[in-house]
Amino acid sequence: MQLESMILEGLAQLNDMTWVPFSEDAISVIYQLAEQPDVITGRLLKALVQTLFGGPPTNDQPLQQDEDDVFPKQSSQAPPSSSQQNNKTHPRVVARVLSIAGYIALMHLYHLDVSILSELKRRHNIQEEEKERKGKKNGKTPGGSRRKSGARDSSIHKDSGLDDEMGVGGAAAEDAEAEYIRKICEREIVTGDNLLSVFAPVAVMICKNPSAYKNTELRSSAALALSRFMMVSSEFCDQHLQLVFTILEKSEFAIVRSNMMITLGDLCFRFPNLIEPWTPNLYARLRDESVEVRKTAVTILTHLILNDMLKVKGLISEMAICLEDKEDKIASSAKSLFAELARKGNALYNIAPDIISRLSDPDTGVDESVFRIIMKYILQFIQKDKQAESLVEKLCHRFRATRTDRQWRDLSFCLSLLPYTEKTLKKLMENIRCYHDKLSDDDVYSCFTTIISKSKKFSKQEFKTLVEEFESTIEGYHNKGVEENADFDKAAKVLSQAATQENTTKNRKKSTRTARKPKPWEVDDSEEDVETNDNEPPKHPSRKSTRNVTKKTTKDKSDDDFSDKENRKALPGGKRKTTEKKRKTVRLNPVFSSDEEDLFT
To answer: Structural domain boundaries of the chain?
Structure first.
């Protein structure tokens, strides 16, 4: 076949950058027009296997040697031949072979799941029509014979006739055909003993060893081929799903991450139960450093969300953050998603509380200014009275779970954005116990005054009176909270000053502590006031002086008692504070009264 030969001839033309798209289009034409496309692609795969693992290049132009060449073309035991210039396959050739093998696997899946299954259903419908036609002919027989035949065969055809009327028989046959196709895809295309199963281990090996295979084109083609093989078999998909998500997160090439995001979007449609546990990893690409990866992620996730293929709750806040992305295309795609969700009944209303909670979370949220811009866009779609009333009640109860002032402001700001009716405002009044203690914050109070100013526009006088009462209540709680905060600040200031003064006192006490008591064998030079003569024998003045001092100091005991009292007053606990020097001075130097001092003058 001409297309087959063109694919094989262009495989080794390394400078031709159009070979991959040309070969994919050629394979698509083969599967659409050929009576037996599996036979043609089988021959093609055999030639690709020979190119990948053994044979020489298929064109006249020899391949250039590359340092990243893959797969030896000759056995290590065989001696090298002078005619063989290359002993390895060029990485671009390997990339092309894996690309075409992955595309053939994908087209064969489509061929079985769509073309063959549709043909089986068409043939089954023809058989059913033939049965109905024969049944009508048999029903035109005379009444007597009809009654006899009916009486004779009623017990035999009772169940089958009931199944035919209810369509159970046809449905069971269709299910059996679909199950037959599914088993073929599971066990006989990319797994088992067949041609495509030869290429799957090659793709897995390259993806698992990025340090050994550094060629960007090769790694990208291997990852794409692996994901296409996973589309065919759920067993093969489950086996290599972790590897694909590792590539999605850790590959240093943005093109590889983008390709993985696209193929994982297809896998969500093919095997949703397998991909569902990995949903957070898909949303994580919305924060990718590459603009192209973020664009791809927003497009894929928007498509999956609008088709109900992904759970929205819990992670939709990541899409809300994209509303303020620096890239205009990403922001516009995110806006279109929320606009479409607003048209789908209660879809946007159901996710609004979760978005508010996650974006206002101080640990994982966004800046307050960004939060307000995002919520202004989202809450503008909440226009139904019942939705607004229910959302007001939910947000009021969220005040009880707040941890920071920022969360108070965020919730009150969202309340101010909602449309208010008489029922909605009554719901806000009924839940005043949830937020009355937060009204001391000026921003929170400002948001509630905005709500009140909106509500005053109603024409009913009774309702205006109710609004005025609510306004006075809000103002009272605000003033009370401000006063309590002021008292609290004063008390905190007093406590702070007291603590500072106490610390100062402690520091002074530490500074007045004396040095350690000298040991008995140590002599303090400062206490030796009497000059000693080297010729005189040593004396023991301490004992003698102590006796004399004792005799003399008894006269002025009252003076000492007075000084002790003064020391007890100066120190807490009535303890007398005297240094070791002072004690020794008292022992060595006698204390004289005023009369005795006159004798020495």
So the answer is: 1-56+90-132+180-232, 396-497
CA separation for the pair 279, 286 (Å, rounded): 12
pTM over 0.85: no
440, 478 contact by CB (below 8 A): yes
CA-to-CA distance for 311 and 296, rounded, in angstroms? 19
Residues 89, 92, 93, 98, Cα dihedral to 10° = 110
DSSP string, 179-219: HHHHHHHHHTTSSSSSSHHHHHHHHHHHHH-TTT---HHHH
**What Å distances lie between residue 98 and 45, 59, 63, 92, 359, CA to CA?**
10, 19, 18, 10, 43
Residue 53 has pLDDT above 90, yes or no: no
Paired sense of beta strands 88-89 and 70-72, if any: antiparallel
Helix (H, G, I), strand (E, B) or coil at 36: coil
Arithmetic mean of pLDDT, 141-157 = 47
Angle between helices 143-166 and 168-187 (to 10 degrees): 40
Helix (H, G, I), strand (E, B) or coil at 304: helix
The radius of gyration of the chain's CA atoms, rounded to the nearest angstrom, is 46
**Residue 89's beta-bridge partner residues?**
70
